[in-house]
Amino acid sequence: MFDMNPLNIADAMLQHGVMLFVAGTLGFIIGYISRQRLIEQLEGDLASTDRELDDCQRTPIMPLPTGIDEASVLNRIRARAGELNYDRIGRAEASEADDLKDIVGVGPFLERKLHAIGIYTFRQVANFTKEDIDKVNEIIEFFPGRIERDNWVGQATELDKRK
């Protein structure tokens, strides 16, 4: 009776080709416009970051006050040692001390700061919670977030297992 096959129309292939071309062209135009918008946004962000960087570089660096030496810094830190929860992280004596400099991110002066607040072993560092990390950062006057970025807890856990 009726044949409903659209491919039986004489110019069906031409119509399909035109629709494919139009769809491809529209897809290209939409992709191009969205890409241009992303480029403009990233260029704006870059310009903003460049301005912030220039502002930071123009800000004069304030020299440290004279008369502040390592001993006074360690005494100031030692005075705040009682703020830590040693029941959670554990107590240790200087005689039990591990070489905390084995933890990436801990240098000699930072190790002395940790010793000043009673942190001597990998086990103590491995027991740090988020609150302990924040408190230690505050007490030892260290860069916020650095303990987590350097993964002191994970490193200390591994070093403690190897002992």
From TrEMBL:
Transmembrane segments in this chain: where? 12-33
- Protein name in UniProt: DUF4332 domain-containing protein
Q: Could you tell me the keywords of this UniProt record? A: Membrane, Transmembrane, Transmembrane helix
Q: Please name the Gene3D superfamilies in this protein's record.
A: 5' to 3' exonuclease, C-terminal subdomain (1.10.150.20)
Natural source organism: Rudanella paleaurantiibacter
Q: Does the keyword Transmembrane helix apply?
A: yes
Q: Its domain of life?
A: Bacteria
